[in-house]
Amino acid sequence: MSLVNFTTREITCKIVYYGPGRSGKTTNLHYVYGRVPESRRGRMVSLATQTDRTLFFDFLPIDLGQISGFATRFQLYTVPGQVYYNATRRLVLQGADGVVFVGDSQARQLDENLESLQNLQSNLLEHGIDIRTVPVVMQYNKQDLPRELILTPAELDDALNFRSVPSFPADALHGQGVFETLKSISELVLKRLAAGSTA
Amino acid sequence: MTSTLNPKFTFETFVVGAANRLAVTAGRTVAENPGSAYNPLFIYSGSGLGKTHLLMAIGHSAKQLAPQLNIEYLTLDEYVEAFHAAIAAGQGDAFRRRFQNVDALLVDDVQFLTNRKEMQAELLRLTEALQQAGHQIVLTSDRPPSEIADLDERLISRFSGGLVVDMGIPDYETRVAILRRKAEERGARFQPGVLETAAGIDFPNVRELMGALNRLVAYQAVNDSPINAEAARKVLGVADATAASPTAVSSTAAAGTPGPDEFSQFLTDVTVTVGKAVEAWRARVAEAVLRWEGEGYRTGRLEKLLDHDNPSAVDEAIASYIHDVERLKALEAEVGALDPQAAGDKVFRDPDRMAEAEAEAAKVRDGAAPPPAPSGAFPLDSYAGGASNDVALSAARAVIEAPGKKYNPLVLAGHSGLGKTHLLNAIGLELMKKKGAVVACLSTQAFVDELIAAIDGDRVDWWRARYRRATALLLDDIHLLAGKDRTQEELFNLFNQFLDGERQLVFTAPAHPNKLEGLEERIVSRLEGGLVAEIGDPDRAVRRTALERIFSQQKMTPDPALLDYLADRPTDSVRSLTGLVQRVSEAAAAQDQPVTAGLAREVLEGQPPAGGGGRRTTGLRTSGLVVSSAGGVRSREKMVWDWPSAADRVIEDLR
Question: Sheet harboring B410-413: ordered strands across?
């Protein structure tokens, strides 16, 4: 998808929140939704249908208005975290300009995190995209849980962030780290434009 | 164009509660008796409360009861689209016929009529036609007719003339019923209390209620074990509390997290990043495109730059574009002053056609010679002033001092030969000394002739423009306009423009404007609206000054006695003095004598000198003026044949 359209003067960023089930992706979106003025946000859509179980994701469009003469829009998506919704995940990933990997900080969820990360990589490959070329940031959610249950951001960095992308500790429920993460991914995505990559 | 009715949206699937009972009953009635019960029926409610469902249910039900009925359902957008397509295809009438033949017209989302005047008119026409034919109209909107911004009063009254019903947010019981029915439709079974939990949440509309149901269905499917009320509360409570209720949001904000300005901050950051990221040059080009496009210039040249990945010398290209645009602006302004019509040419809006623009401007420039200027032969200094023309002269000075402000128009009235033309030109010359002044000064005859030539050459606009740019218009002998209707018309327009723009108008006329014949009343009244300065017969002071001027022009130095003698001779025009001097000086030349008072007396009163011409007839006093070779008197008209009697003259002088 075209990120920057010079003819219509539009910038559209599709950002996908990826991660294992119950890691807090939707919570991230809800927090953003609550912070965006009503005029700027579209309806937050949470889709789930009985007839097509694979179609299950959250969608939040945000209109940032005119920036440098460009109508700028962000589209935030979450993928279903559950393992067997992979087809949906792949679908949602299609055309993503950036990915936020929302990891669960709980120690016992580490394996799920790793599995989801691998799943992200393979799904991107399915679309013919090398994960190293896509802007990705990590968010270590649930840092508000008791110390004994969770890993520290440093430990999680060691375990998950082997590509050394920007990472943020977060407490999505209360908003800690949510906008930092969004800001970081937005910057990465938008900076790719400077490299002349408009496709 | 017309949408088909969704088969799911019937009365059977519509859950009726207290909030929508009236609307549904009205809908059923209309479906059973289209055109006769409530016409039009106007249903409004917030988003997601079942307007479309009800509208389609009416359609289904009516069709079911009377299959032969022609029923059209469409959204206003579709209606507008169909209308535009029909107009574009030249099928406007067919379009109207098509809709006038439906038995029931169901239009969804009419709130989009805002700011669509032509559609409102069209819909009004259609509503009237359908109502007259007894056909049913049902409309839905998200607000009542009176609150649809900018809606035609007639439409409001028409809509309100039938039945306007609203549908509210369903109450708890209705919500439970809706959830039960929907769950059933999907074949989903929930433990007792689950749906009630969902129904307990205050959703603003049914659509979001459906979202909650969807979530429950999804969670139940994921967990493979029946979800219970508590789990349902968790599923919906956690997620939906933040989304739907503002109190939940404020409670999270109160929990010591960063303030509500996170979004603005984010926006600022993104703006900075975008500014840097959208490669600076692209942003600059895009800005230039936006700006000049906004001003109405073609930006093809700049847009081409954007097609390149890395064009060289972007700033130079923009600069040269701006330079060209500035030049175009200058050209357009220049041309606009000369010929307003030519200025509208789109060639002045396309920097890619500079050469054409220059050529066009040159063409206009060539065509637009400045209007005729006053003659340099009549300086103000040489104008002889005296009691007889005191008013005119001081008015002239006032006009010169503050053109357009004090006496506008100034009409110099007086009979021929009193120096009106001189004064007119003198005013013109003085006005021309002002900065940026364009003084048009010409005889009315020339003015008329120019207009005729312009009409002949199909250049009337150009001719008008030529005078419109003048800062002062001075017309000699305005009475010559008599009977020239077209010129009077043009002058009238010019007149108004000059008055509006506080630009000076000066006219000369042989008499007070209200005594002139053949002038339209509107011109006369405008002439009288300024100052009419009448110039009387020259008094002695004027005569003497004029004589001095005449002699000096002929390089003669008369002795004072001669001047006094000549100045004492009454005359009714300054011009005749020229003839007088001519005659005396010719006689002097013939007799080879200096010009003296004695000679003059001899020439003018005594026995005519030999060969002097015996033109004088006794008993009839004339000014002694004869047609001279110097051309001082050009026409018979300018000659004075009859003197007033002495008694009259004395009175005249005393006045």
Answer: B439-443, B472-476, B504-509, B410-413, B531-534
> What's the gap in Å between the CA of A118 and the closest CA on chain B?
22
Nearest to A18 by CA among A73, A85, A64, A72: A85
Q: Which of B211, B249, B279 sits opposite A46 (nearest CB)?
A: B211
A199 domain-assigned: no
Q: What is the CATH number of the domain that holds A177?
A: 3.40.50.300
Q: Distance from A123 to chain B by nearest Cα, in Å? A: 21
| Overall number of domains in chain A | 1
Evaluate whether residue A68 is within a structural domain.
yes
ipTM (interface pTM): 0.81
For B257, the closest of A11, A176, A194 (CB atoms) is: A176
* Chain B residues near residue A176 by CB distance under 8 angstroms: 257
Residue B261: partners with Cβ closer than 8 Å, 6 or more residues away: none
Q: Determine contact, residues A186/A13, Cβ cutoff 8 Å.
A: yes
What chain B holds in terms of domains, given with CATH numbers, is 21-167 (3.40.50.300), 172-244 (1.10.8.60), 280-367 (no CATH), 387-534 (3.40.50.300), 540-654 (no CATH)
> Which A-chain residues 84-143 have CB contacts (< 8 A) with chain B?
none
Q: pLDDT (tens digit, 9 = 90+) per residue, B183-208?
A: 887 777 787 778 888 887 777 788 78
Which chain B residues are Cβ-neighbours of A65 within 8 angstroms? 267
- For A155, the domain range is 4-194
Contact (CB, 8 A) for B116 and B149? no
| pTM, two decimal places | 0.36
Tens digits of residue pLDDT in B120-172: 888 888 888 888 888 889 999 888 888 888 888 888 888 888 888 888 888 87
Interface contact flag, B263 A40, Cβ < 8 Å: yes
